[in-house]
Design goal:
15 helices, 379 residues, Transcription Regulator spoIIAA, binds iron/sulfur cluster, 48% helix, 10 strands, 12% strand, two-stranded antiparallel sheet, alpha/beta, single chain, 3 domains, eight-stranded mixed beta sheet
Amino acid sequence: MNEATTFEQGPIRPPNEAGSLLIRVSRNCPWNRCLFCPIYKFDRFSRRSTEEIKEDIDLMARYVDEVKELAGQNNKEGDINQNTLAYFYNQKPDLFPIAHWLYHGEQSVFLQDADNIIYKGDKLAEIVRYIKEKIPGVSRITTYARVKSLAKRSVEELQEVKEAGLSRVHVGLESGSDQVLEFMQKGVTAAEQIEAGQKVIDAGLILSEYVILGLGGRDYWQEHAAETARVLNAINPHYIRLRTLAIHPAAPLAEEWKNGTFEPLSDEEILKEERLLLEQLEGIHSALYSDHILNLLEEVQGKLPDSKKFMLQVIDNYFNLKEKERNLFRLGRRAGLLRNLSELNNIPRRGRVEGIYKDLQKKGLTVDQFIEDIRTKYL
Ligand code: SF4
């Protein structure tokens, strides 16, 4: 029998798993109905057998040795640096994911795709143990999980996976509002979100909850902010990660927008919603991150409760700017030229943003039109 030469990779991973080795444990999403989500809409969910997954892990382990050997031929130290990465990217694309992982410190593994807690604890524990055995040095293994699947697992089952080596679970909370969850066809309730989140924490796993700013639209923005804060306060997750709604043309929500049944918020309305959410986060010790390209104010981040005042102040600082400065910042942020408000004072960067601003004016386009075009390009 011929040995496999490629392993499967799924389409996405959380932003903070950019340096992780991606191991595909299941394919696509078992739910696949959320209106805002275009990711797996054209693909069917399927489970991978333990044998198939182990074959991928065996191949990855072999490739780790191969990449190290080839890197040694490329430079004396055997380092994976930018040049060796470019070599793998161009000459050995099958090995590139491994080289990329080695370049990023060879410690983290992310299990794809959308929900691996769909497997019973013993199967997932076996896979996680196998990764640790075959790829030594891995210190962090994480996965996405659906709330519905977490609800089906006992704390003991989750503990078994944790003891095998799973470190962290990423959960798409999206909203704590039952009305928003129902409209978006998320297939879970706020009460289930709380139950699932508490279970993950009771099992000793690290919990990362993702919230989508703007998901309530114009009708439910206040309810979305208040109820999401209530659910997060009840869970007290280790991490809260914010991202901003972008309506991708392939997402069913695009149709709702067209029909007028969903009205998205503007950039600044979303900031007001974000402020309301932050204001109402109480009694928790989560670290909050805005580490997604679509979030207007990436610098809204810190550890609760101590950094809450700082985070609110960042939003207030933005609103204290004059309209032209706010527009320049929004434009600069979306164009990838500015990351925080103080960079408006960086003369060369500001000059480039002003150049784009003038071009838009010449073409008769508004900042909002430019931004909307960019927003739909990011997931
Ligand atoms: S948001 Fe998550 S659960 Fe919903 S369809 Fe997308 S991948 Fe599936």
